Amino acid sequence: MIEFNNVSATYDNGNVGLENVSLKIEDGEFVFLVGKSGAGKSTFIRLLLKEMNADSGTITVNGKDVTKMSNRQIPRLRRDIGIVFQDFRLLENKTVFENVAFAMEIVHKPPRAIRRQVPQALEMVNIGDKAKAFPNMLSGGEQQRVAIARAIVNNPSVIICDEPTGNLDPETTWEIMRLLTAINSHGTTIVMVTHEDRIVDRMGKRVINIEDGHIVRDDVGRYRADEEARARAEVAEEDNIREETEQENNPFSAPTPELKENEPVKNNPFSAPAPEFKESEPAKDKPFSAPAPELKESEPAKDKPFSSPAPEFKESEPAKDEPFSKPAPVTEDTVKIAFGALTEKGVKQDD
Ligand SMILES: Nc1ncnc2c1ncn2[C@@H]1O[C@H](COP(=O)(O)OP(=O)(O)OP(=O)(O)O)[C@@H](O)[C@H]1O
Ligand SMILES: [Mg+2]
C-alpha cells in the first residue's frame, strides 16, 4: 500500500512540488495520475522513490515510512517499485535479454535465477523471439514491452509508469495498456501518469488529478471531471424521465418509495469498464495466454487475469502529432538508480 499523509515538498529554488497531499493507494489498484504540466505528478513519483525528500508529512510504502528511511534502505525500496518511462530508457549496447537481465544483475540475483526469470518476463510481454535483438532494431512498442519486462522481472509490488504511451501510436498504445491491465490483474499495483484522455476514459479506473501541487480530484471515472459530472447528470435526468413516464403510464404504481437520492446512479456508464471494451474478444496476439509462473506465484490471480478486455482501438485515429521528445541519454548508472542498486554514495552491494 502507498500512503501519503499531509505531504509537502519544495524544490531548492522554492518551487512548490506538492502541498499538503494525502492519499492512499491500495494493493492491486490501477490508478491514473493526471494533471497539467508542472502540476506535481513527477514530484509525487520522486517522493515515492525517495529521489527527493518531503518537507513535512509521511509517505508509507508497504508499511515502511519512506521519509525516515536511511540511504542504505533506498535500494530495497526502489527494488519493490518497477518503473516504466516514456522514452523506454533501454541500454543501446545491450540486447533485449541483457537489458532485462541487467535489472536482476544489479540487485545481485544469481545467474540461475536470471536464466530462468528473464525469458519468463520476455514471454509475459510477448517479446521472447527478440531476446537477442538490440533496442535500435525494435519498434517503439517493442522497446516499451522490453522496458515493461525489465520493470516486472524483479517482481515488484508496484509499477510506476510515467507516460508510458507518450511516444507510441494508438495501436501500440492499446497493446501496452492490455499488457499493464494483465500485469495489474496479477495483483501488481499500477500508477500511471498520462495526459491521454482517451486512455483514461476507456479504462474507467481511479483518477487522481493533481493541480498546482494539490489533489483536486480523486475518483473513478473519466479524464475530465466536468465531463463526468455532465454524463452523470444526463444519466440521472434520463432515469428521472423514464421513472416519471412509467408512473404516468401506470395508474396503479405505488408512490415512489423512499427516493434513493443519495444512491449512485445505477447505469452510470463510468462506474463500469469503459463501454467500448470488447469483453468477448481476445487480445489480438494473446501475449498473456500463459501467465508467467514467476509473477507472484503464490498469489491467486485476482480476477480472471487474461480475460481483461482489450480496449477497443480505433484504426482511423490519427497518431499524436506532438513530436517525439528527445530521449535522455541512458547510461548504466541511470538504470541502476532506477532499479535500486545505487544510493547517493554509489553502487551498493545487496543486503
Ligand atoms: N528540479 C526541479 N527544480 C525546481 N523546480 C522543479 C524541479 N522539478 C519540478 N519543479 C517544479 O515543481 C512543480 C511540479 O513539477 P513536476 O515535475 O512534478 O510536474 P509534472 O506534473 O510532472 O509535469 P509534466 O506533466 O510536465 O511532467 C513545477 O512547478 C515545476 O516547475
Ligand atoms: Mg512529469
Describe the protein's topology:
Elements: E1 2-10, E2 16-25, E3 30-34, H1 41-48, E4 56-61, E5 64-65, H2 74-79, E6 81-85, H3 96-105, H4 111-124, H5 140-152, E7 158-162, H6 170-185, E8 189-193, H7 197-203, E9 206-211, E10 214-220, H8 225-249, H9 332-338, E11 342-343, E12 346-347
Helix pairs in contact: 3-4, 3-5, 4-5, 5-6
The protein binds adenosine-5'-triphosphate and magnesium ion.
Magnesium ion binds at residues 41-42.
Total of domains:
1
Helix content: 25-40%
Overall geometry: globular
Level-1 CATH class name:
Alpha Beta
SS element count, helices: 9
- Arithmetic mean of pLDDT: 79
Query: What is the N-to-C order of secondary-structure elements (H for helix, E for strand)?
Result: EEEHEEHEHHHEHEHEEHHEE
Query: What hetero molecules are bound to the protein chains?
Result: adenosine-5'-triphosphate, magnesium ion
Range of strand content: 15-25%
CATH superfamily: P-loop containing nucleotide triphosphate hydrolases
CATH architecture: 3-Layer(aba) Sandwich
| Sheet having the most strands | 6 strands, mixed
Q: What is the CATH third-level topology name?
A: Rossmann fold
Compute the number of strand runs: 12
Q: Between the first and last Cα atoms, what is the distance in angstroms?
A: 23 Å
Give, in spatial order, the strands making up the sheet with the most strands: 6-7-8-3-9-10
